[in-house]
Amino acid sequence: MFPTTRENRLEPIPERSVHPFLRAPDLKECELYWISVSGFPPPAAQRTWLLDFFPRLSKMLADEQGLRGEFFFQQKNIVPVEQRFRKLAPELLPKLGLSRRPGAPLPPPPTKDQLEAGVRGEPFDIMSHMPDYCYWMRNPDAPKLIADFFGLGGASMFYLKPDPATTPPDVSVIDELQKAFPQMQWDKLKMMLNAGCASRDPFLAKSKKLFGEGLEADPVYDGLSYILPLLGTGDFFSQPEAERKKWFELFDLFWRESPPDKGIYIASKLPLEDPLHRVLQSMKEEGNVYPER
């Protein structure tokens, strides 16, 4: 079980107690763990291990803390799986939002001269003018989502408590109609109802308030459904304490693929070391050892 509070540690962390993760020392607001990958996409053996680990982590957080995981994917990383994404979109029901580095402005649109140069075939990096949009996959089938989009450097999951506002309506009437009219696509209707309820989640508006400071006057702001913090491990040490605390006003824990860090990190305001150790130990006992090379 999780401890109820995260005490300040007075003794050294046992070496490799959460191996293959490394834990960052001296952070007060959270616990930060990092695991190395040999590139994005990672080698097949590493990807297989990680695809086993993260669903176990999600299950542990659900069972022991009652947390739900929400899956997000960066738009700039969608190109290698764009066809797959478009095919699955009616099932995933993606909702566009923004990921933002702390205090960063939105990139300026390209100038007329830059556009004309691009038309002439001259070098032009359109991606540098695009905000860091991301997709929230409103289908709650996290293991399937991870398997489809994990390993490209753009996946993340944010964990928070369920909210009554998102509870789907009673669909017993639909169940009865399905018996009478089996040819109808009732499952898709249920999926749409669930996605509509998910869109009532208070985290959407709260995320804009917390992470959209300074963007309120930008024309893009009002059309955004949500804003997520887009962080590298260095931000946990370089940002002021007040900024770091904001990240955990909305979420209890999150993980993100981070190509600049050459790995994946987990940040948690919950005491995570012992539960994480148990998940990793169970994998080792099953013979599932992380291939670090």
Topology, number of strands = 9
Mean pLDDT: 83
Number of domains: 2
Strand order of the largest sheet: 1-2-9-8-6-3-5-4-7
Poorly predicted spans: 6-16
Helix content: 25-40%
Round the Cα radius of gyration to an integer and report it.
21 Å
Structure keywords:
single chain, 293 residues, alpha+beta, 9-stranded mixed beta sheet, 37% helix, globular
Task: Describe the fold and architecture.
The protein has helices spanning 44-65, 82-92, 112-119, 142-149, 172-180, 186-198, 203-211, 235-238, 241-250, 273-285; strands at residues 22-23, 31-36, 68-74, 94-100, 133-137, 155-160, 227-229, 253-258, 263-268. A 9-stranded mixed sheet has the order 1-2-9-8-6-3-5-4-7, with helices on both faces. The protein is α+β, with helices and mostly antiparallel strands and 293 residues long. The relative contact order is 0.22. It starts with 21 loop residues before the first strand and ends in an 8-residue tail after the last helix. The chain is globular, with a radius of gyration of 21 Å. The chain has 2 domains: 22-106 and 127-163 and 211-285, no CATH class; 165-200, no CATH class. The protein is 37% helix and 16% strand.
